[in-house]
């Protein structure tokens, strides 16, 4: 995946507009945004395509995509912070376990990959 593919600003912007009261409209642009970002946050492409069959289900998909981006980011940030804290305290096993837990539980592949990289870096020390 290249950097442009991982630009989630468009889905965040669309979600903010809808939350602010703008009606969701299933356009070629919103369809493309959801087709690209759905799988990036762990939603199978087939589920994305099913959701794009109606405006109501597409709006629900938008909400879920935005939720996964937001919630996953917070989970990853908390896990990295906790792992760093434990590492600084000399608890390397605890730091590794925090990262193992997020690798195992995280549904957003990018966030899972980041945690895996951090775990591998700890294992090299």
Give a brief description.
With 125 residues, the chain is an all-alpha fold.
What this model shows, in words?
The chain has 125 residues and is mostly helical. The chain has one domain (9-124). It has helices at residues 9-19, 28-40, 45-51, 55-88, 92-105, 109-124. Helix 1 (9-19) crosses helix 4 (55-88), helix 4 (55-88) runs parallel beside helix 6 (109-124) and helix 5 packs antiparallel against helix 6. The two termini are 29 Å apart. The mean pLDDT is 93. It holds the Pfam family DUF2379. Residues 7-121 form the DUSAM domain.
Features:
125 residues; mainly alpha
Strand content: under 5%
Pattern of helices and strands: HHHHHH
Q: Considering DSSP H and I runs of 4 or more, what fraction of the residues is helical?
A: over 70%
DSSP, total strands:
0
Instruction: Profile the largest sheet.
Output: none
Principal-axis shape equals elongated
Sequence stretches where pLDDT stays below 50 over 5 or more residues: none
Distance between the termini: 29 Å
Question: How many structural domains are formed by the residues?
Answer: 1
Domain DUSAM: 7-121
Protein name: DUSAM domain-containing protein
Pfam family, one: DUF2379
Organism: Corallococcus caeni
Secondary structure topology:
Blueprint: H1 9-19, H2 28-40, H3 45-51, H4 55-88, H5 92-105, H6 109-124
């Amino acid at each position: 995946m290249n950097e442009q593919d991982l630009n989630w600003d468009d889905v965040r912007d669309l979600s903010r507009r809808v939350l602010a009261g703008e009606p969701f409209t299933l356009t070629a642009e919103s369809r493309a945004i959801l087709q690209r970002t759905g799988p990036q946050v762990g939603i199978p492409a087939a589920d994305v395509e099913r959701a794009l069959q109606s405006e109501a289900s597409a709006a629900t998909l938008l909400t879920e995509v935005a939720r996964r981006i937001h919630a996953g980011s917070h989970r990853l940030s908390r896990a990295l912070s906790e792992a760093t804290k434990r590492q600084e305290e000399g608890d390397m096993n605890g730091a590794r376990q925090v990262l193992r837990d997020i690798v195992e539980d995280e549904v957003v592949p990018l966030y899972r990959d980041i945690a895996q990289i951090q775990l591998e870096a700890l294992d090299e020390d």
